[in-house]
Specification:
The chain is α+β, with helices and mostly antiparallel strands. It has three helices and ten strands; from the N terminus they run H-E-E-H-E-E-E-E-E-E-E-E-H. A hairpin with a 2-residue loop joins strand 6 and strand 7 (111-119).
Length: 183
């Protein structure tokens, strides 16, 4: 019996920890004057490594984009939008349980509208998770403020409609949160 227990102790099995892979869903419909960028992810999709057939299916059957650096362009009438998302590398430990999000920049005709704002972090600070451009030029960006701990996640949205509005950046998001949720 002891021999069996000793052997069982040294036999190793393949174990997989849960893994979460971040994607950006990007929909561009020029005829409707509509652009949507959203944060999403799929758990345990690459348990045995990235498979070409899975990546091909994702590319053919969805609007999901995967990778550390994502850059997409979208033409809406006379406006040309460029989305840049830079996801951080996952780690075995660290902030956000080792699975940090990234940063997003959105430009319209070369002018920055959203400036390097946290995107899909799901931990300790405000981040954007959905951005919509409607009627060719009105930008509506929404996210969650995680700074108050998990029990107090606070939703927010911020709009950009043109020259009168400042760009959407960390400072403007903080200002908006302070107006929405005064202490």
């Amino acid at each position: 019996m002891r021999l069996i227990l000793a052997l069982l102790t040294f036999i190793t099995a393949i174990a997989h920890a849960d893994s979460y892979h971040r994607f950006a869903g990007i929909t561009c419909i020029e005829e409707a004057g509509y652009l949507e960028i959203r944060a999403t992810g799929i758990s345990n999709i690459f348990m045995d490594g990235i498979k070409p057939e899975v990546m091909k299916a994702i590319k053919e059957k969805s609007n999901l984009h995967y990778g550390k650096n994502i850059e997409q362009s979208c033409k809406l009438g006379k406006y040309s939008y460029t989305t840049q998302i830079k996801f951080q590398d996952s780690q075995s430990r660290g902030r956000c349980m080792g699975n940090p999000g990234g940063y997003i920049t959105l430009k319209r005709n070369g002018k920055t509208i959203i400036d390097n704002v946290s995107f899909d972090w799901d931990c300790d600070w405000p981040d954007l998770d959905t951005i919509k451009v409607q009627w060719y030029k009105f930008v509506h960006a929404c996210g969650i403020d995680h700074t108050q701990g998990e029990r107090y996640n606070r939703s927010f949205c911020i709009d950009y409609s043109g020259a009168r509005n400042p760009i959407i950046n960390k400072k403007e998001i903080t200002r908006k949160l302070n107006r929405l949720y005064p202490e």
